[in-house]
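Inverse folding, one chain.
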């Protein structure tokens, strides 16, 4: 498989504090890849680097073989990377419909945008019932669906998801995981940052474990689920085996 996204020897700093140490990872086309780690491990910083929100001091980010480190966030989005940010970050005072259309702001193909709009509502039928409702009044699970649908409106080849299940009820967690699988099944590559290793590894093909800015484990989701180091650190030890 070909790496659609790659990070090569990334070193990131916040002032004098180093957040990444020669970080390297790959996301193969057509896959769901998860980045696992606890608080302050550098997961969200990794997402910021990919999306151009934070520039590393050294190292290279490539998308489809082209260097994107150094580009602005709008330039990166236009190249085919969508974002579902942590805490969703919707336009709370705008309607669901307006939020969805904001996902296509960089597109000029009005006919295809209209077709994608209908396709997205087919994936998220609950949102069709909420189109005129202000996004800030939705439940957490519904807001997460809006964030995912908004990202799809950009017709991305890769979607980066930062903690997509955070703060959701168990019912919505299962629904969001099912939707991630569906989106991937339609040909969209997914890179997801998750603190909940058990959930992420249920749907991922491959995973990395990040600790204090360094990759300490990598492998297929099945391998990581059965790795005692993962069980002890993230899945509750032997009881989770």
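Residues assigned per position:
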């Amino acid at each position: 498989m070909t790496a659609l996204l790659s990070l090569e020897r990334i070193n990131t700093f916040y002032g004098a504090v180093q957040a990444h140490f020669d970080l390297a990872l790959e996301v193969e086309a057509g896959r769901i890849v998860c980045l696992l780690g606890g608080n302050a491990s550098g997961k969200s910083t990794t997402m910021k680097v990919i999306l151009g929100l934070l520039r590393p001091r050294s190292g290279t980010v490539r998308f489809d073989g082209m260097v994107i480190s150094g580009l602005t966030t709008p330039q990166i989005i236009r190249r085919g990377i969508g974002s579902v940010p942590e805490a969703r970050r919707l336009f709370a005072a705008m309607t669901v419909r307006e939020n969805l259309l904001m996902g296509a702001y960089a597109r000029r193909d009005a006919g295809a945008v209209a077709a994608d709009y209908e396709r997205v509502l087919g994936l998220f039928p609950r949102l069709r019932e909420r189109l005129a409702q202000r996004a800030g009044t939705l439940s957490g699970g519904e807001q997460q669906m809006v964030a995912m649908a908004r990202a799809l409106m950009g017709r991305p080849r890769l979607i980066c998801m930062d903690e997509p299940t955070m703060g959701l009820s168990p019912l919505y967690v299962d629904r969001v995981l099912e939707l991630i699988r569906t989106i991937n099944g339609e040909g969209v590559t997914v890179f997801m940052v998750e603190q909940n290793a058990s959930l992420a590894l249920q749907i991922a093909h491959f995973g990395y474990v990040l600790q204090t800015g360094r990759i300490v484990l990598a492998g297929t989701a099945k391998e990581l689920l059965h790795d005692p180091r993962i069980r002890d650190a993230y899945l509750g030890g032997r009881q989770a085996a």
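The first helix runs from residue 43 to 50. The mean pLDDT is 89.
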